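Quick one: structure tokens for this chain, please?
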Amino acid sequence: MIIVGIVVWLVLCFVIAAAAGNRGRSGFGWFLLAFLLSPLIAAILLILLGPSAVAAQMVSTEKDDDRWRNLVNFDPDIMAAVEALRPGGDAALLAFRTIYEDVGDKSAIPNIVSRLQGASFEDCMAMAKLAYNSKCEGYPVYVDSDRNFYVDGKRFRSDSEVRGYVRAQRKAQRIGAAT
């Protein structure tokens, strides 16, 4: 009977650790807390504290990305601007997105597009207020003031996501070269 109680206690501690990890908190730390105090007390504390600021920002970033995808797919003005800037590559598209999100006024779209068309990669990054951060396996990494990372015009929330993306690109290049 005692062994069953210990197993249940440990399982509940793992559940608390998983819930803490989903809320942007340390799973290991919350496992220890639940193990030492009780899973019930740890669960109450976790509910009272809510998600961490990092987790809340990740949700906010995901909502921003979803909103932007919807604008590109369904707003005719944004769609036309993206098509006009597509020949400029990812830098022009990323700069357009960043500037438009800052301005937030559709009447500014023609001016933004005209300034970005034909602009160099460096000029696009400067207009978008993105600073060169580093290189990851040869890919330039840019960062904005909110610590979002940009590679190939795609936004990432952490450097580990950047590394995963770059590894996937390298793997795809190797597979493509082998065929």
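The beta strands are 131-136, 139-143, 149-151, 154-156.
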